[in-house]
From TrEMBL:
It comes from Marasmius oreades. PROSITE patterns: GNAT. The lineage of its organism: Eukaryota, Fungi, Dikarya, Basidiomycota, Agaricomycotina. Residues 1-19 have a biased composition (Basic and acidic residues). It holds the Pfam family Acetyltransf_7. GO terms for molecular function: acyltransferase activity, transferring groups other than amino-acyl groups. Transmembrane segments: none annotated. Residues 51-177 form the N-acetyltransferase domain. InterPro entries: Acetyltransferase_Butenolide (IPR053144), Acyl_CoA_acyltransferase (IPR016181), GNAT_dom (IPR000182). It comes from the Eukaryota. Residues 1-26 are annotated as: Disordered. This is N-acetyltransferase domain-containing protein.
């Protein structure tokens, strides 16, 4: 009797998930300049700004305690400031943000991608995303896995930057507590 290979469906899945079939994603670390008046800041915004920008952009509202945990527990944070030429530098406002939650080894989650409505369609979201990915590439060991939850309106951006849907191999799930 011929010996059957154990778990042939897992071996088939392994062949189907060959990374060589994925699109070339080298473009995601290419720098993307910001328009005039905008500046990157590689640190989190204030708690109030973080919570307000989430709310204004349609992300789920969070409590102060949740926001404090997000700000202190992020591996990398990127914000974009806008400086109106007619206002003092001290009045620059945070108009975009994104952050990475990660273990520093191989697993990273991009979260809280948000661009203020008055500043959308200027490439700020893509610039933040590329900057976050570049930071992961610079600081993490080779072989990092970067994931995110893609709302409908952000999917085109994420695809443009090399992200692919994980289904049907795996499906994201969550548990609200």
């Amino acid at each position: 009797m011929a010996e059957r290979e154990p778990y042939p469906e897992l071996q088939q899945e392994s062949k189907e998930s060959d990374l060589s079939r994925l699109p070339n994603t080298t473009l995601i670390s290419d720098p993307l300049p910001l328009p005039p008046g905008y500046t990157f800041v590689d640190s989190p915004p204030s708690l109030r700004t973080y919570l307000d920008l989430r709310r204004l952009t349609g992300l789920t509202p969070k409590t102060d305690a949740q926001g404090e945990g997000a700000l202190s527990g992020s591996w990398v944070f990127c914000t974009v400031l806008y400086q109106d030429q007619n206002r003092p530098v001290s009045e620059a406002e945070v108009v975009a943000m994104g952050r990475v939650i990660g273990d520093g080894g191989w697993y990273f989650v991009i979260a809280d991608m948000a661009v203020h409505l008055a500043h959308q369609r200027k490439g700020l979201g893509e610039a933040v995303l590329r900057r976050l990915i570049a930071r992961i590439k610079e600081q993490a060991p080779p072989g990092a896995l970067v994931t995110l939850s893609a709302d409908e309106k952000g999917r085109a951006l994420y695809r443009r930057c090399g992200f692919v849907e994980s289904a049907p191999k795996s499906v994201g799930m969550w548990l609200d507590l």
